[in-house]
Amino acid sequence: MPLLKRNRFLLLASAAAGVVVAASVAVIGTAEAASTLGASAAQSGRYFGAAIAAGRLGDATYTGILNREFNSVTPENEMKWDATEPSQGRFTYTNGDRILNQGISMGAKVRGHALLWYQQEPGWAQSMSGTALRNAMMNHVTQVATHYKGKIYAWDVVNEAFADGGSGARRDSNLQRTGNDWIEAAFRAARAADPAAKLCYNDYNTDGVNAKSTGIYNMVRDFKSRGVPIDCVGFQSHLGTGIPGDYQANLQRFADLGVDVQITELDVAQGGNQANIYASVTRACLAVSRCTGITVWGIRDSDSWRTGENPLLFDNSGNKKAAYTSVLNALNAGGTTSPSPSSPSPSAPSPSASTSPQPGGACSASVSLNSWNGGFVATIKVTAGSAPVNGWTVSLSLPSGSAVTSTWSATNSGTTGNVTFRNVSYNGQLAAGGVTEFGFQGTGTGPTATPACSAA
Ligand code: G3I
Question: Which partner for 194 in 7, 145, 171, 354 could form a disulfide, CB atoms 3.0-4.6 Å apart?
């Protein structure tokens, strides 16, 4: 986030003073009080995590704190697009796997960050647009989520897609220019690839009720109403010297939409209020039953991206700061709520009340291809006929020597010759004339004939 954007929080310092209480009053009976952040968060069924860097795992002070204090980890950079797919179709997971394995060795949750973000796109993707970029983006989501399938607690599927300022609109980017449905397409592909992971939208400057957070709120509400699979919203919470007075109310309004909320990148500028602001954020999460955990964006001040602002819980030498104590005390004081069950609840499609899909409706399919020497991505559009459809299959013929290597938003029978694709749970039901898409990547050359579609 640009520094200018963060500075607006300075204006909120006085508001913060009204919503915090002294950390020293928050300690409860020492018999129950846990002595680390992770253990104290676990008392209410939550996690307390840190963003970590693979390059620092050889630092004994760093890993000592990490192993002792945290029960969740997020890769600061290692699972981003530029790190995992530095050239198109060549995936590198070495550093991402180091973070994953560190998390596994700690028995910690691993938050995946981030499948798609307009920043840290690899150079090859930065220069792409349109269908080629859409296909590359879908393939990226599918490949990375598949590599980490079953191991990620929650994925930031899309990061920072909304504009700052008062518009509440999407941010312009080459991803956005592929079509406004790029976010829901990404969520659907992520769900198909890793049904067990919670799927989150993540953003900054969303720490109170404002135009940007309301734009995101409206998107989440729309997704929930249409059965687009979304489970959680991340509030980065890169804070200055204040916190909006409606911080907790903002978390609650999202939770009331039926998604979990998580504090995903917390750091707070060092200043008179740092410890109190950290405590306020912690208490706000504890007070919202669907707030499942808090992640700080780094361990020691010297590990932070905010050079010179000393925004974290440990000083450069690894000593606990006052902010650490205030968070621990707030966690040990407990909250009024426990988080709801943590398994993701794949959003079932919500068929409209007025259309009840009948068996036997017809459908049609068309294919668009993005090909290169030796490979291709096929995007298949499935369109229901004049009656609603409750399940569909699409069959096509691949040229000799071609093979399917991965599929999203459908399951395939066979990989060569005649291949049949069947709908997945969320895209089988189509209203009369309704449309859905799935895709697959293959080696060789793509199908040339129009695919056959049959409805259940
Ligand atoms: O690893 C290279 C190194 O080899 C090279 O010599 C050096 C030269 O600049 O760059 C190093 O990479 C840097 C990388 O951090 C690792 O330190 C990149 O330049 C730098 O751009 C990158 O910054 C990261 C930033 O995202 C990128 O926008 C920060 O570490 C990371 O904390 C920050 O995290 C973001 C979240 O993902 C999303 N929300 C905002 C947050 C803060 O900006």
Answer: 145
pLDDT digits (tens, 9 = 90+) for 303-355: 999 999 999 999 999 999 999 999 999 999 986 677 755 445 444 333 333 33
C-alpha distance from residue 102 to each of 58, 70, 235, 307 (Å): 11, 11, 24, 25
Q: Is 265 an annotated catalytic residue?
A: yes
Question: How far is ligand 1, taken at its centre, from the CA of residue 81, in Å?
Answer: 12
Question: Which two three-digit tokens encode residue 201?
Answer: 């939208």
Indicate yes or no: pTM above 0.90: no
Asked whether 362 and 387 are in contact (CB, 8 A), the reply is: yes
Nearest ligand 1 atom, CA 114: 37
CA of 125 to the centre of ligand 1 (A): 18
Residue type, 62: Y
Closest C-alpha to ligand 1, atom 4: 55
**Residue 436 and residue 228 in contact, taking contact as beta carbons nearer than 8 Å:** no
* Length of the chain measured in residues: 456
- 145-203 pLDDT, tens digit per residue, is 999 999 999 999 999 999 999 999 999 999 999 999 999 999 999 999 999 999 999 99
Residue nearest to atom 30 of ligand 1 (CA): 305
Asked whether 392 and 454 are in contact (CB, 8 A), the reply is yes
Q: Which atom of ligand 1 is nearest to the CA of 51?
A: 32
For residues 413 and 401, give the distance between their C-alpha atoms in angstroms, rounded to a whole number: 17
Among the listed residues 371, 351, 337, 366, the one whose alpha carbon sits nearest the alpha carbon of residue 441: 371
* Contacts for 7-12: CB closer than 8 Å, 24+ residues apart: 7/240, 8/205, 8/240, 9/239, 9/240, 9/241, 9/242, 9/243, 9/269, 10/240, 10/241, 10/242, 11/242, 12/240, 12/241, 12/242, 12/243, 12/244
Cβ–ligand 1 contact at 76 (below 6 Å): yes
**CA 55–ligand 1 middle distance (angstroms):** 12
- In the chain, the N- to C-terminal Cα span, in Å, equals 49
Strands (E), 16-153: 47-52, 72-75, 109-117
**Is residue 119 within 6 Å of ligand 1 at its C-beta?**
yes
Q: Which of 212, 137, 115 is nearest to 171 (CA)?
A: 212
